[in-house]
Amino acid sequence: AQKVTQAQTEISVVEKEDVTLDCVYETRDTTYYLFWYKQPPSGELVFLIRRNSFDEQNEISGRYSWNFQKSTSSFNFTITASQVVDSAVYFCALSEAANYGQNFVFGPGTRLSVLP
Amino acid sequence: EAQVTQNPRYLITVTGKKLTVTCSQNMNHEYMSWYRQDPGLGLRQIYYSMNVEVTDKGDVPEGYKVSRKEKRNFPLILESPSPNQTSLYFCASSLSAGGYTEAFFGQGTRLTVV
């Protein structure tokens, strides 16, 4: 069965600190997709990244970077030099190619608070 | 502009009073779905639709109904709302299921049932 675990319920950091949000997933499928979404206080879901299971290259986008390791079934998200605007709930999600009906399985989310 | 539109954004209602949350997309997407978000549980799928007149249950379908009479619309119906359906609801659409294509989410509907 597919499952996403985000063990960190809440994280608080001071502005300019680096912070890593953990995501561990379970799947039996060999083809799958991993996602990160940001939910700011306003409530909408903001797409951050999608990664397919055949692409283990790490990705960097500005202050954001993602580390995908199939060996440990992890897809961790790092924010470098955090800012107050990064305060949000972050969700990791999994989509299995074979599970055609159920688009996403979401983790429980990690609430990040960046203090000035 | 490509978007998924949900209405209303906020709703307070009383137990047992039927309500409908509308969802409309302008991207000609085949796949649409509804999720509810609860603290500590993330988003859980309620129902999904692969195309017009094709709908199926997700993880938490009890107490909800959906219909897909037109490709662009996918309303969520609560026939007899109860307080445990107080939640934040999201509608999503994509060209197809399975993660191949980008999913677009609505702005969310915050429902309170008293």
What features would you describe in this structure?
The complex is a heterodimer of chains A (116) and B (114). Chain A is an all-beta fold and 116 residues long. Helices cover 0% and strands 53% of the residues of chain A. Chain A contains no helices and 12 strands. In chain A, strands 2, 5, 6, 10, 11 and 12 form a 6-stranded mixed sheet that branches. A 4-stranded antiparallel sheet of chain A has the order 3-9-8-7, with no helix packed on it. In chain A, strand 7 and strand 8 (64-69) form a beta hairpin. Chain A is globular. In chain B, strand 9 and strand 10 form a beta hairpin. Chain A binds chain B through residues 4, 6, 9, 32-33, 35, 43-45, 47, 50, 52, 91, 93, 95-104, 106-109, and chain B through 31, 33, 35, 40-45, 48, 50, 56, 58-59, 88, 90, 92, 94, 97-100, 102-103, 105, 107-108, 110.
Chart the SSEs and their pairings.
The complex is a heterodimer of chains A (116) and B (114).
Chain A: E1 3-5, E2 10-14, E3 19-21, E4 24-26, E5 32-39, E6 46-52, E7 59-61, E8 64-69, E9 74-79, E10 88-96, E11 105-106, E12 110-115
Parallel strand pairs in A: 2-12
Antiparallel strand pairs in A: 1-4, 3-9, 5-6, 5-10, 7-8, 8-9, 10-11, 10-12
Chain B: E1 4-7, E2 10-13, E3 19-25, E4 31-38, E5 42-51, E6 54-57, E7 65-66, E8 76-78, E9 87-94, E10 103-105, E11 109-113
List keywords for this structure.
heterodimer, A: about 120 residues, mainly beta, six-stranded mixed beta sheet, four-stranded antiparallel beta sheet, 12 strands, B: about 110 residues, seven-stranded mixed beta sheet, 11 strands, about 0% helix, about 50% strand, globular
